[in-house]
Amino acid sequence: MLTLDTHVDIRWPDPPDPLAEGPMRVDFPKMQRGELNAVIFIAYVGQGKRDESAHAAAAERAEAMLRHIRDRADGEAHRFCTTPDELEACHAAGALGVLSAVENGYAMGRDLGAPARWRALGACYLTLTHDGHNDLADSARPQKRLGDAPAEHGGLSPLGRQAIAALNEAGLMVDVSHVAKTGMLQAAELSHSPIVATHTACRALHDHPRGIDDEQLDALKAVGGLAQITAVPAFLRPTPEGGRNPGSVEDMADHVDHAVRRIGIEHVGVSSDFDGGGGVDGWQNAAETPGLTAALAKRGYGERELGLLWSGNFLRLWRQALAVAD
């Protein structure tokens, strides 16, 4: 089984050496120990001012991070993979897979050529927003510190609609994890390849703004898309006032169960959001990856289903995105 964690943040601008056991939840020794075969490391850019100089700085940061992620793989024991076929060959050779993606379309600014550049650097998806509206879309979590109204564009902006087309043309998947419901539903209709929520949860079980509701789950199924349940405790269950959130792999399994019952195993996956807020009892770092697999197996998910949840569904969407670009 190919275990692929599709959303892991890195520290920037001073990332630690992934070859050594360190303070991050994901590094190569932990991946090896926990049989986590591959990881998509994220070039994350936080939301800021929307002017020319700020957009330029965001673009520079994102592309520097993409180059760093690419360069952290040695080509032998740790291979940088830019296609599903490369990842599967990497896994067959017993090497660890290193992949990349961009989080927050803020890094695009108003440059519709950015997706093609990011794809050339190896990225496989773009998360359209983060916390706070940007020029592409409304965020699920507007930020008062940025002066955000509850909604700005009514979902996607005209530029955001053009960005969807640019992502399709470049072969990057459209990640709607942080996008407001209006924009998520619009992206589902507009994108020529299926959309994905790489790190989310089910609002039917816990009504958190970063989750997706049953109508959104249905929309993902209708377009062949994917909802990936992530290991962020606050998304999975309420946090006791003044206490520690007791999120666990069992909570993740509850959300997986709900999504599977609603839209089918072919449209559900898992991810961690490690080093970006993720980490639950039973899966606190890459070395504990078997804990989540065991929790899902206890629910009756067999080898086929586990393979789909861990990587099969994501690879299908990735292949479709590349086919659309071709």
UniProtKB/TrEMBL annotation:
This is Membrane dipeptidase. It comes from Belnapia arida. Residues 136-155 are annotated as: Disordered. PANTHER family: DIPEPTIDASE, MICROSOMAL DIPEPTIDASE. Gene3D superfamilies: Metal-dependent hydrolases. Pfam families: Peptidase_M19. It comes from the Bacteria.
